[in-house]
Amino acid sequence: MGEYIWLIPSFPLVGFLLNGLLGRRMPKAFVSWVGCLSVFLSFLFSVFTFFELLRLPPEARLIEVDIFDWIISGEFVTRVGFRIDPLSIVMCLVVSGVGFLIHVYSVGYMHEDPGYPRYFTYLNLFVFMMLILVTANNVLLMFVGWEGVGLCSYLLIGFWYEKDSASNAGKKAFIVNRIGDYGFLLGIFLLLFSLGSKGVWTLNFSELEKNVNLLNENVISLITLLFFIGATGKSAQIPLYVWLPDAMEGPTPVSALIHAATMVTAGVYMIARLHFLYNLAPETMFIVALIGVLTAFLAASIGFAQYDIKRVLAYSTISQLGYMFVGVGVGAYAAGIFHLMTHAFFKALLFLGAGSVMHALAGELDMRKMGGLKKYLPTTHWTFLIACLAIAGIPGFSGFFSKDEILWKAFSSNRGSIFIYILGLVTAGMTAFYMFRLLFNVFYGKERVDEEIKHHVHESPKIMTIPLVILAILSIIGGYVGVPHVLGGGAHFEKFLEPVFKVPHEGEIHHPLSLEIGLMVLSVVVALIGIYFAYLYFLKKPELSESFVQKYPNLYRTVHNKYFVDEIYGFLFVDNLLRFGRFMKNVIDEAIIDGIVNGTGYFLRGLGSVLRFLQSGYVQAYAFSIIIGAILVVGYLLMKVTS
Amino acid sequence: MMDDLSLVMPEVVLCGFGLLLLLIEAFLGEKSKSLLGILTLIAASSALFFVLRLSRLNGEAFFGLYSLDPLASLIKGLILVILVLITVASIRYVERENAIAGEYYPLLIFSTLGMMIMVSTTNLLTIFIGVELMSISVYVLCGMFRENVRSAEASLKYFLLGAFASAFLVYGISLLYGSTGSLDIRAYSEAISAGNYSSVLMLGVALITVGFAFKIALVPFHMWTPDVYEGAPTSVTAFMAAGVKTAAFVTFLRIFYTAFLPVIKDWGGVLWLIAVITMSYANLTALVQENIKRMLAYSSIAHAGYILVAFVTGERSLSSSIIYYLFAYAFMNIGAFTCVMLMERKGEENLDIDSYAGLSGKHPLLSLCLSIFLLSLTGVPPLAGFMAKFYVFSTAIKAGYVWLAIIGVLNSVVAAYYYLRVIMYMYFKEPVKEIGEIDLSSPYFLVVFICIFFLLYLGIFPRDLTLLAEGAVSVFF
Question: How many other C-beta atoms can be found within 10 angstroms of the C-beta atom of residue A217?
Fold first, then answer.
């Protein structure tokens, strides 16, 4: 079965082709079945492959299949080939599993949309590209997937392209991502040539890992930094995070799948995949962890002052991605991937829950016009509650295990630092605060829904609530695969990934168990404090939050406007680039270059119209021309002879 | 004597068929004239069969008046393929335009016979006979649309000026004979090396140059070309552009590279100048043409100039680029003219560029095919026109004629304007006039597709032809 791993990405490709070519002429049921089934088959196949891997001894858990030679240039050969190891199978399971649930949810959510076949076509293409990204066995094929998911993200953000804001958001996402991709590409080139100059022309992960010690340390630092720039684009980290909040213009299931659960985690996956490079670049690792924790903090604080429920979730995603980067940045790759997985569950659940609320309220997004929805949307409410508990890190829910693992590693690992730990801890409290602010405002308290809409408020159909329930279950039990030793668990998740990362155990500082337990309790307390303040400000005494806003209007305005980062970028880069572009167009291109080109053209045409008068049509004139020519030729040759 | 005959089998077969056609024609009714076309195809294919069978042979016949070598075989093959393509394209055209089929096909055959004789001899007298046989047949072919004034005018002009140019040619031959006592071109290079460097000999070289410059339409001996190409039936124009030019150029090449390389520093200079004038004059004048046949006529003059760029270098080993160019040139011109034949009406209508405006909407396939030929003429990869230009200009650069190559490249930039202009009209303009029904019958498209196939094949796998061409030009060593 191992040699058939290429089938995992192939099913969605077939789905994409079927829906893309035939979808518009087929009934909706056909589109839904093709769309969902293709992803489900990928999931099924990933599960089989997963058990196949488990049967192998841990150090032999690597299946590599080359399909065909792709680029051959001198000594450099790149193949289209796939690689399944514990890391990529985890990604496959998350992408196809969560992807399948979101496909099913979309059948209900998008039912009335005229672009229904187009939607599923893009969605299947996305799953195909994402699976290529995580199963590729070389950097170049991974880059294909990387660009492919970027394209799908663009297409789906701008899915309702008649809306200006949607098509602008799509463009913004694409352009900001291109900036990151530029770094990624430069990283690929530098890696290829610096290894090539040592005689090894390859981009295959296994071969890279074998030959990585040929590289000089500074070069590795530069390469890893360039790759990380790519990651900040795709995974929305400082300074390139600005596209993700706007990306919420897309349909909500798209936000759940692409902009929460899967695509935006590609940067984390990429660093984990290239861990052998990052391990040799401690400076870059520190930058990764630092950027991660700063992003986590900054995004969480912006989440305080947003009223659009999807935007709150978007900033929450950015913040949680920051945690993952802290994880991989301190060398705790397994912890980073663990959080990636649990986050996929609860964040997808949060988005789908938000979608369910929007569905009930005719597309309303402003939480000031919600409240008290608990009794109208019971299933949505309790699944949303579970997700909030999970993201806040309450013991027993999945987020607790993964987030705490990262915080502990940030504290204890020799790559971590106390600064990163404290900032991470504070952010955990902030997370709990803004998530419960959202929960209380939407589901509890006074009903602020418009009277007109209120009559139609209804729970979503089964096809939408069942994925919610499944994701809620996963948000609880998802953490139990990685219960740490200190709580009597087996840390199975970390162990499963261990053959990939080959964590060096020597040189690790051993901390007393009591310290680990103590820190765990501390983070739970911080989360509870966050929840308490949310309860106090938004449920018990809502007037407190209003008086806070009135007391510190400038602070509030700054945070509400996202620290004016978009405006600063606009002023510094966008305006200047536009000015430069206009100068190039108006002066250099239109005036100077076009002037030269057109001038030459007019001159030559003018010359031609003069010359055409020589062509009189009279035979005598033609014969005369021959005579002139003959005299010239004869004269020239005779002169040569006599001289 | 029998051996001699076996070497000239292709010519014998072709000649026999030509005479047979003339006889049969008298007994055929008006309706069955297309039978003559089919017989012409049979004639061409059987001649081609013998050319292929003899292609490995080297030999002389009739006391050195006729000789067979790889160059002759390769070019005769090309000429016969040209005959086949022109015949296929003519079958419906001649019928539609009411030309006199009875003489049309035999004249095509005799003209081809003249070309074949020209290229397979080293004797100037035989060459002259071939040139005249080819030319006189073509003079008549140009006037095949008898009711059309322009066709008659073209025929008469071509005949008058052609006779004038032939006088130069034959006078040059007599001077060469007078100064060396031989008509075999192989004798001249020995005589020159032995010290015969008289002004009589050089006058002979000059006059022969004038004669051939007329046939291949180099400036300022080109004046007939636009008028004749425009007035002649389009199938004959294609035949002249592809066939006559190929045969004349190869003969010119054979004479100068066999006999006069020792004095290349003399004639090289004058041909350098002619090449520059030809390219520049033709391209500039083509810019302002509104009639597509006239535009293609100037284009063919310009292409002769490009070939001359490789010619003036005198590099025997690199002259295979000339052969390659002639192949590519033949296919793209026949293709382009066949598209023009599809469009035109009663010999005169639909020839202006305005008729092509918006053509892609109504006839996408025709527009696509014509675009391919025009792009090849422009020199866009992967079409053969690109490789041809590439070989010719790189020959010039390798031989140290960098300025000539630069002038050539600049000229092809100018040329891109008038080729792409037609494409722009077809794809980006709204139709401005009614062009009527177009006869999209299969013979035309067969020719078009064969030409496209060869352009792509030669463009993507140029090695096959360059190897043959290198074998062919080895006769100069």
Answer: 11
Closest CB to B220 among A607, A612, A629:
A629
Q: For B131-169, how does the pLDDT look when each residue is reduced to its tens digit (9 = 90+)?
A: 999 999 999 999 988 888 888 999 999 999 999 999 999
| Residue spans of alpha helices (H) in A75-115 | 86-109
Sequence-distant (≥ 6) Cβ neighbours of residue A376 within 8 angstroms: A360, A457, A458, A459
Q: What are the angstrom distances between the C-alpha of B438 and each of A484, B31, B343, B351, B444?
A: 81, 22, 6, 13, 11
Tens digits of residue pLDDT in A122-177: 999 999 999 999 999 999 999 999 999 999 999 999 999 999 999 999 999 999 99
Query: Hey, what amino acid is at A52?
Result: E
Tell me which chain B residue has its CA closest to the CA of residue A610.
Answer: B285
Integer Cα distance of A503 and A498 in angstroms: 7
Which residues make Cβ contacts (< 8 Å) with residue A632, sequence separation at least 6? B270
**Best to test chain B binding among A619, A627, A639 (most B CBs inside 10 Å):** A619
Closest CA in chain B for residue A625: B220
Strands (E), B112-242: none
Residue with tokens 């030509």: B18
Nearest by CB to residue B165, choosing from A614, A626, A634, is A626
Please tell me the distance in Å from A634's CA to the nearest CA on chain B. 5
B168 to chain A, closest Cα gap in Å: 9
Q: Of A480, A304, A328, A498, which Cα lies nearest the Cα of A390?
A: A480
Of B203, B219, B223, the CB nearest to A638: B203
Q: Is the four-CA dihedral B375, B378, B381, B385 of positive or negative sign?
A: positive
Which amino acid appears at position A323 of this protein? Y
Question: For residue A615, which residues of chain B lie inside 8 Å, CB to CB?
Answer: 223, 226-227, 285
CA dihedral A168, A140, A221, A324 (to 10 degrees): 60
pLDDT at B349 over 80: no
pTM, rounded to two decimals? 0.69
Q: How far apart are CA B344 and CA B232, in angstroms?
A: 13
Which H or E element spans position A463?
helix A462-477
Tell me whether A639 touches chain B (CB under 8 Å): no
**Do B165 and A638 count as a contact with CB atoms less than 8 A apart?**
no
Chain-centroid distance, C-alpha A75: 33
Query: ipTM value of the model?
Result: 0.89
Give the amino acid at A268. Answer: V
Of A608, A623, A634, the CB nearest to B206: A634
**Residue B48: CB atoms within 10 Å:** 20
- B197/A634 Cβ within 8 A: no
How confident is the model over A414-428, as pLDDT tens digits?
888 899 999 999 999
* Contacting residues of B for A613, CB less than 8 Å apart: none
Pairing of strands B59-61, B66-68: antiparallel
Q: Predicted confidence band at B469 (pLDDT cuts at 50, 70, 90)? A: very high
pLDDT higher than 70, residue A2: no
